[in-house]
Amino acid sequence: MADPMKIRAAMKGDVCEIRVLMSHAMETGMRKDSDGKTIPAHFIQTLTVALNGKAVVSGQAAPSVSRNPVFGFKVKGAKSGDKVTVSWVDNKGDKRSDEATVA
Amino acid sequence: MDMIRRTVLKGASATGVLAGLLAAGVLKPTLAYASDWNKAAFEAKDPDTALKAIGAEGGSANKDLVMKAPDIAENGAVVPVDVTSNIPNTTSLSILVLKNASPLASHFEFANGANADVAVRLKVGETSIIRAIAKADGKFYNAQKEVKVTVGGCGG
Asked: What is the interface pTM, i.e. ipTM, of the complex?
């Protein structure tokens, strides 16, 4: 399983700002290594952000999202102490889910 | 007698594993909402095909859809793009890098109070227009910006 995500969620006015840093190679499948062999594609395909277990954002990503991707979202109706869960699945079926509490 | 015990143990361990997975959040039922990856859209080689595959269209330009991206990106591997839709009832946002080999970079759907606001970092292979498409009330709107890239972000 991949390294844990870094999730930061904080209230700014009445909007909860969520920032997520995922640890992932995000290989495009177009790069070549020093021997000229193509490095196989390996990237996050789907991600979900849930607030207290209710999905708020569901996203799909292409390999053109940067290595170690950072995503920022804003959610209304959250409050301090709420639970934010972020999960992703990559093209090799690897997955990761992490939680944070709204500050 | 022994056989029954064995079956019971087997069953118990199987449910135990399942409960463990649930607890670890691997099989969280509430998160089954995550949409499947749209292979056709993400592997499309031109923007129109990609949009069609994801059920969107080019739409019309709208100033309430705001995209922030740098004018010049020194490093094409990490180009911060920030898209905010102030159009009411925006339910999804798609971001495309028109010159990339596969233009569609990401697609987001919003529900349960999420603002149509996304910040991502993209790889941009060469100087290209980055275009955001918003869907609101079944209509499509776009905003775009050209980002000049000095060092490409795709390939070695």
From this structure: 0.91
